């Protein structure tokens, strides 16, 4: 078994760690999958933005840069970490609002083209907001939800999806990486199964974007959403993003028809005409400051490359599993043991984990707790060292004693 | 006629001007009603937030402050500039998303309680995004729009509203200050007329919040929305806000049911149960950085007091009208001459104004242009001096020659 020191010395991405605020402190941060650390450059960039761009260019900033920022930043996200060509991704809103807009766009489209398809397929361990949005849309559009029962330590398998999709399925809503177990879904295979049944698919990438390889175009995905505050380190509540495959953009419309999704926002005339392309999925005035805060991290992700990031992510989670196996015999792994089926975090199960988490927080070791009995260890690849993992697992062992 | 120097010398709020980035420059900023200047303190506060709060507290920030920020900031907005008691206002999302959520909440409620009311009343010069959202909701909910025809240099009068509301009216959607003409609607009287007809009212406060006195509670308003990037200087695309009168909160539900509007967001169980009170109108993870950027301005508004701000606003727009009357004989005033019916901007009409605006921008005089032929002069009370108004109107006169 390699030591943390050996692993850090051999890590080609180790030098990125110093680019983050507070990474050199003694605090062990096991929650980079809930809220990533700020990149050190971000504070300065925000200051420059306020003083020079907002303060200096004032309203002219809209013409000069901001109007296009939702889609230029979307294209950056697409190129750097979504495996998507330009023109299909836009930043803005929250993940929840994107889920509402894109689920509605999908089911309203199917209602026009194939009205017998009246089911939304979703799994019981899908992230709560996805389930709540789907529940609301099903109620308001007269659809029903078809649930895939999922174990909280696993995720949706191709076999499970095959069993429930069919000629009644309008839309399948899945998480790429499960928020509790870190189950990494077989996205290309699940997308194919949904398509073979004639359904559309929406992928939630919140727990995978920036940590796991995503190939939306190659997988032939229809719709996707994700947030930027986890592995994309955009800050608390930073703008989310939505992806709509180019082949669907002209057929779909979304319900929150605001001026920024209009074909000509400054015409300000009567009647809404949706813009061409991805812009029709934008609604209101986009949150520019939040977009500025995302950029420094996106640049680091591009420099490191998503393949190298994923390789380090696998090494970090594997090391955490190895240490937990050795030091925490009373604990169960509530994440896939196979790294090919595991995203960027590891969940350890024990009935006392709520109490253990509280104790760890008092000692500046910061994992997350998720019912039932899950200690969730999120390992953000660019800001986490193997030494941090070792110190953290040792602290868990001590807290459990 | 007083000189600009006299007026600035007598202005009790003059000292606030130095608190804004760039206000001392030679640039004439006549667009503070589209995007307010940054408060000088904002860059530093954002830096501190990134380094210490986000970077230092990390995920713990949610428990410590951020979960409540949408409603504590909402309460600050309510107290400082909306005339509303605590517990009725939340910050977040864009104005467009708030319009969608609150219009849907209103018409869905009326559909349950009074299904014969199938009309949304709205005026032809309402801000485009309000009209587009209303149009979309009418189409999806099987309602119809009843238009009040409004002159682009005026706004909705009590007589006009009285003519169209009745037993078919579900909801009336009005702008407090019209984006083109600056018409300041008689909000208490219009609200009363709508209520007498048995309808709900939604006020869009985008062009009034922070510049004009608003008394949502005293006027018995049902619903309101507004943005924070105009007279509240929150920055491009800063978070919007929504107000729902306490008496309606438990009866209304909104369609974008996300985890942050759930009665217990971290329960993460099956089934959506809306939170009590204003929180049920929140959807996704709130944009914290954008909320931090709004706070410095809100403090200045509180220090100055909204009555004093409104008094200066009236003095600024009156001075602009006076100068335009004298120096621009070929121009028509496309705003109310009576300051009691005028918000914080003044629109001057001439067929050549598009060209004049372009010429002014080249000379660092920054008004806005709005069809048809409107040069819009927005005078943000705390950051604009009378001298700036004088220099700007002189530049308009020169550009027109």
Task: Give a quick precis of the structure.
The structure is a homodimer of 401-residue chains. By secondary structure, chain A is an alpha/beta fold. The first copy, chain A, is built from 13 helices and 13 strands.
Characterize the structure shown.
The structure is a homodimer of 401-residue chains. Chain A is of the alpha/beta class and 401 residues long. Chain A has 2 domains: 4-30 and 306-400, Aspartate Aminotransferase, domain 1 (Alpha-Beta Complex); 48-301, Type I PLP-dependent aspartate aminotransferase-like (Major domain) (Aspartate Aminotransferase, domain 2, 3-Layer(aba) Sandwich). Helix content of chain A is 40%, strand content 13%. Chain A has helices at residues 4-10, 41-57, 60-64, 69-82, 95-113, 128-141, 158-164, 187-196, 246-249, 288-304, 306-327, 353-362, 386-400; strands spanning 28-29, 89-91, 119-123, 144-148, 169-175, 200-204, 223-226, 241-244, 332-333, 345-349, 365-366, 368-370, 374-378. In chain A, strands 2-8-7-6-5-3-4 form a 7-stranded mixed sheet, sandwiched between helices. A 4-stranded antiparallel sheet of chain A has the order 9-10-13-12. In chain A, helix 5 (95-113) runs parallel beside helix 6 (128-141). The longest helix of chain A has 22 residues, at 306-327. The interface between A and B is large, with 80 and 80 residues. Chains A, B: Its cofactor is pyridoxal 5'-phosphate. Chains A, B: Homodimer. Chains A, B: Belongs to the kynureninase family. Chains A, B: Pathway: Cofactor biosynthesis; NAD(+) biosynthesis; quinolinate from L-kynurenine: step 2/3; Amino-acid degradation; L-kynurenine degradation; L-alanine and anthranilate from L-kynurenine: step 1/1. Chains A, B: This is Kynureninase.
